Amino acid sequence: MGVAERAVVTAAIDCDLHVAPASMEVLLPYLDDYWRSYIDDATIRMGGIAYPVGAPTTGPAPAATYEDLVPVLDAAQPQRAILSCLTLDGVHRNPHYAVVVARAVNDWIRDEFLAKDDRLRAGMVVSALDVPAAAEEVQRLGPDGRYAQILMPVRNDVPYGNKLYHPIYEAAQAHGLPLALHAWGRGGHAPTTTGVTTTYLEDYASNAHIAEVQVLSLVAEGVFAAFPELKVAFLECGFTWLPAHLWRFDKDWKGVWREVPWVSERPSEYVRRHMRFTTEPAQLPQDAAQIAEVVQMVGAEMLMYASDHPHDHGGAGAALIEHLGAQDAEAVLRGNAAAFYGKAVA
Amino acid sequence: VKVVVARVEDFGPGDRKIVKAGSRSIGVFRVEDDFFAIRNRCPHQGGPLCIGRLASWARADLPGQVRMDGPPRLVACPWHGWEYDLETGQSFMGPGETRVKAYDVSVERGDALGEDVRHAEEQPVRIPAAAQEAGREPGPYIAETFSVYVEEDYVVLDV
């Protein structure tokens, strides 16, 4: 039974469904004169650094309008779908521009999608280039109720455990909004922690170990001691790396716990309580018994379904759902996300 | 057997002395006005535990806001850094590991036991409150500790 057929049994909560404006023109009505002129002067175009046009992983263009999205929703019949728009993370480092484009993207996604279909929710985009402004954006949109998470790229300049991000986390916790760290990042971000790589292969595979760094950073630097209600979703970063990573994290913490005494439980306990990981892409073995072992080690309760439409990472995500028992499949397709996002997806 | 370790006046706060008692090497520590004695052999891999660094428990409710919790009462083995509570000998590494010696245990009828049987005293696991607050779980290794006290002018070890 494939995902589509299973979805009829369990209407899924899709935690990562991509949309993107067809061009910068679409966002211009949400910007003032100066920024319209800036975009024109700087010849800013929609960038697609993560998914090059024509690459097998890229798939068709993400939905640019609600009309584009309708066939996707008709096919999948989700209970809820949380839209991700990564347009903000283009190739720029202008904090002022980042603030206004974040606001424009959030307003566009509301008008183009959220206002037209009750099943839809969105990640609100904010930029780490201006942390106080990002916190203000969370305050502005938090009360809306249709933004289910705060969408930021998993690659950034300073790991997410750093205190500089606390104003965002404070606002996130106040509004009960999870942080969602999505694979990739702004152009110019080294795809590894040690520098720039040469190939797309390295770049693509790097999202997992960058996520590992963020898991370490968020727990070790005490984000959950300071914000005990904050939750973090990792979108499109994989999850099969978790067992070995958490084992090592727990082990080393026991040795150097005095450096981080605000970590007063095993690090893996924080991860299990505060973090969730989406199913697509799944990097799984072929063998059914081995898939079952991976799921047992990771814990089905840690996983939330994502279509990652239109991106195509192969069949592993579907294989994962197929190999789950009925109860775990329901949890991964819907229940875990329902509990994680709470009233935003109710 | 009582073993005199030193005169109290020669054993200041923060000092330690490693003494030989029969075939055993034992470290005696003075932490403020408390004396502790612990076997100078790390149960992990046999390292010279008592020449290791002393440290306190550390506490923090928020990142960066750390306070040391009491005087240093943990000794870390110089070989692998395993820390042991001076009072209880408890380590907090490797909880859940099963690297302890296993003994046979069976269920038998009371009248089959005969006369020559000793009743075991139940030994509760003693976890210092500071360890619990730091989220640490007791591991399989407990360093052997000994009674040490001040008698008149002398620090006396009971082995």
Could you please describe the fold and organization of this structure?
The complex is a heterodimer of chains A (346) and B (159). With 346 residues, chain A is α/β, with parallel strands linked by helices. Helices cover 43% and strands 11% of the residues of chain A. Chain A contains 13 helices and eight strands. Chain A has an eight-stranded parallel β-sheet with strand order 1-2-3-4-5-6-7-8, sandwiched between helices. In chain A, helix 6 links the parallel strand 4 (147-153) and strand 5. The radius of gyration of chain A is 19 Å and the shape is globular. Chain B has 159 residues and is mostly beta strands. Chain B contains one helix and nine strands, in the order βββββββαββ. Chain B has one helix spanning 129-133, and strands spanning 2-7, 16-21, 24-31, 34-39, 53-60, 66-76, 83-85, 145-151, 154-158. In chain B, the strands form two sheets. In chain B, strands 1-9-8-4-3-2 form a six-stranded antiparallel β-sheet, with no helix packed on it. In chain B, strands 5-6-7 form a three-stranded antiparallel β-sheet. The longest helix of chain B has 5 residues, at 129-133. Chain B is globular and about 60 Å long. The N and C termini of chain B lie close together (5 Å). The model of chain B is unreliable at 98-102 (pLDDT under 50). The A-B interface holds A 163, 221-223, 225-226, 254-255, 257-258, 260-266 and B 55, 58-66, 81, 92-94, 133-136.
**Radius of gyration over C-alpha positions of chain A, nearest whole angstrom:** 19 Å
Shape of chain A: globular
**Portion in helices of chain B:** under 10%
Elements of chain A, N to C (H/E): HEHHEHEHEHEHHEHHEHEHH
Provide the low-confidence segments of chain B as ranges. Answer: 98-102
Largest interface, chains and sizes: A-B, 17 and 18 residues
How many angstroms separate the termini of chain B?
5 Å
